[in-house]
Amino acid sequence: MPMDTLWLIPALACYALSAALFVFDRLSGRTQATGYAVAILGAGVVFHAFDLTARGLQAGNIPVANFAQALSFLAWLTALAGLLMIVRLKLAVIGAFVAPAVTLALGAASLMMSSGHVVLPATLRSVWLPIHVILAILGYAMFVLAASVSIAYLAYESRLKSKRAIGPANEGAPSLEKLDRINYRLLGWGFVMLSLAIVSGAIWADARWGHFWSWEPIESWSLAIWVLYAGLLESRLTIGWRGRRAAALTLVVFSLLVGSIVGVNLIFPGKHGGSFG
Amino acid sequence: MDQTLFIVGINHRSAAVGLRERLAFADDEIAAALGRLRDSSPAVLEAALISTCNRVEVVGVASDTARAADETLTFLSADRKVAQAAFADVVYSSAGRDAARHLFRVGASLDSMVVGEPQILGQLKTAYAQAAEAGTVGPILHRAFHKAFSVAKHVRQDTLIGHGSVSISSVAVALAGQIFDTLKDKTVMLMGAGKMAELTARQLNALGIESLLITSRTFDHAVALARELGGTAVPYENYKPYLKMVDVLIGSLASAKPVLGPDEFESVIRERRYRPMFLIDMGVPRNFDERLNTLQNVYLYDIDDLGALVKRSIGDREREAEKAEQIVELEVESFLKWLAGLDLTPTIKDIRYSVERLRDVELGRHRGWLAQLEPAVRERVELLTHGLTNKLLHRILSGLKHHDDKTPDAAFAAEVARRLLGAELDAQVHDLDDADDDDDTGTD
Question: Is B228 exposed, middle or buried (0-12, 13-18, 19+ CB in 10 A)?
Fold first, then answer.
């Protein structure tokens, strides 16, 4: 067994257990397991960080040599940022989405990981790689978190609309206004990261191949997603689309994003070498 | 006879407010009243007086609880100048286990008008402090009140009895908190002059809001209320242009038809760029068309919606109250055990005396030949008898003090031991003054 999987299994186990506890608390309408869920998610993030470090040392760069590694890296950033939000913004409710999503992403990544020595393709060896990839993955992580906040928003919103919004399960729940504001900020930061990722990718492509843009599937899709997020932010600023509509659109664009990443990377890897961003 | 707790009183369930206020004591009267109670009631050994809007109760300690209750009633009647006949039918009294349970239930807010309301614990603490000041608290009342405080704490921690909003206005405020992150930058508009609506506006205002607008068909009323609450009065003919600024709108206009419908409201929410809006309809008939609830980011609750939520919270509290009752029951048991342990003190004294006396008598009977022995040998014989009686005493006393589920009631066991040893007879000839050697008569 390669030494790096030493950390992968405990990380995955922690994520899965934390996901189960978060979901259990959501379903039971109490918060007795939340403290444990948060702590176990934190442990998962630490184990996962060891795994990424081991792989990074092996590759001599950030561990994004293939789709599986990049997905694992995205899962880690999402878990870390989600953990910070849960603790700092008192948003335990998003754990029920973030922890399962991270478990799923890391689970899928570990299934796709080859146990042998993974070498970064020579075409990708560049200082631009960490810049471009980290920006893109940070952007995606923000979008995952925005989706989780949007789901929480829609759930609480429907309870308020249907007049069931009182009871122990709602005490300490974040207000709609707070969720909406956080969603907006996450979308804003995600959009900034995605924009910078596209720009850095274009500069890198120009340096490597002599042209900014080559209309690869992933490039076209990223541009489309970028336009959709831009529209989402624009509608809020101009018409004032917020609240339920903003949350629902966040989820629509997010599912397109997930579809494009999965589809493009698995079906048309292109020059991006099977990695995304 | 054993000392135990007793309670005599009236509360919101047994007596109307008219009678409760006639029997009530002001805070600064209580210490003096307890002094008078002690002086006039020889059977009342310890006492505290709980006087709140919902109850007037004397909690005390007595050996003859029936007599103590009678004396307390006589005292209440004389002290408050209310004929006993006026409240004889509504007074309840209990003693022993029931009295302990009553006190603990009061402290845990299980006997309150609104179950789970938090004020009663503070009132109980005040009552205890006043009794302590009056010097009418002894060891049993001390223990009983502190137990009541800890039961209350326990119940608050382990049940959700204090959770949820149990009044229309507090439900409305709680809902506002679920929609808005803060009220500091929000504008509240009160339409009409309904009591409940005004109360809700007052509560929101007290939490700190950006501004309060008040409109009413009688402009003078709006102006007066606005002046009192630091708000702004808006003429009724001209309130609509203000709607786009309003985050919380409370309606309680007397109107046969809704004053606001979805068509005109659509433009209001577009103008406020879909920022969320909370509509509280306290008018009957309703002020706001119920279709407003289907608009983007608009949340409409009418009086029935709020009432249903209040009912649910009360239902939740009642379910939690059942858990609380179990906690109370356990604590009553533990308190009574303590009380029974306390009752062993005289028994233990009697037994000890009785056994010591046996030894003295036996030594006396054999004084003759003992005197012929060498002093060193005689001393050892005396030591031997001393050792024997001590061992025997130790076994009996530790057996009495050690009680668990399998052993019979400690007081009963003590009584049996006392009879078997003939301690009762000895106690009659025993001069109690010199019996202060009760080092190991533990109390717990």
Answer: exposed
Cβ <8 Å between B175 and A160: yes
From B174, B180, B274, residue closest to A166, measured CB to CB? B174
Q: What is the pLDDT of residue B312?
A: 86
Question: Which residues, 6+ apart, have CB-to-CB distance to B375 below 8 Å?
Answer: none
* pLDDT < 50 positions in chain A: 1-3, 274-277
Name the more confident of B330 and B342.
Answer: B330
- Pairing assessment for the beta strands B277-281 and B248-252 based on DSSP bridges: parallel
Tokens 């961003």 sit on residue: A277
Q: Rounded to the nearest 10 degrees, how much is the dihedral formed by the CA atoms of B138, B143, B144, B150?
A: 150
The tokens for A260 are 């494009």
Whether A176 and A157 have beta carbons less than 8 Å apart is answered as yes
- What is the C-alpha to C-alpha distance for residues B244 and A239, in angstroms, rounded to an integer? 15
Contact yes or no for A175 and B181 at CB 8 A? yes
Contacts of A241 in chain B (CB under 8 A): 274
If you average pLDDT over residues B80-98, what whole number do you get?
Answer: 91
Kindly state whether B275 is in contact with chain A, defined as any CB-CB distance less than 8 angstroms. yes
Shortest Cα distance from B52 to chain A (angstroms)?
Answer: 29
Neighbouring residues of B429: CB distance < 8 A, sequence distance ≥ 6: none
Marked catalytic residue, from B16, B17, B32, B53: B53
Instruction: Reply yes or no on whether B53 is catalytic.
Output: yes
| Interchain proximity B181–A156, CB inside 8 Å | no
The span from the first CA to the last CA of chain B, in angstroms, equals 20
Burial of A233 (0-12, 13-18, 19+ CB in 10 A): middle
Select the residue of B179, B182, B296 nearest A160 (Cβ to Cβ): B179
Distance from CA of A89 to the nearest CA of B (A): 12
Question: pLDDT grade, residue B115 (50/70/90)?
Answer: confident
* pLDDT (tens digit per residue) in B218-233: 999 999 999 999 999 9
Tens of pLDDT, residues B188-218: 999 998 888 998 999 999 999 999 999 999 9
Beta bridge partners of B61: B5, B46
Please check whether residue B207 touches A, CB under 8 A: no
DSSP state of B288: B
Q: What is the reported pLDDT for B222?
A: 92
Tokens of A103: 């478990």
DSSP A33: T
Please give the mean pLDDT across all residues of chain B. 86
Instruction: Kindly state the tokens that stand for A232.
Output: 């989402």
Task: Evaluate if residue B437 carries a pLDDT over 70.
Answer: no
Of A163, A175, A243, the CB nearest to B305: A163
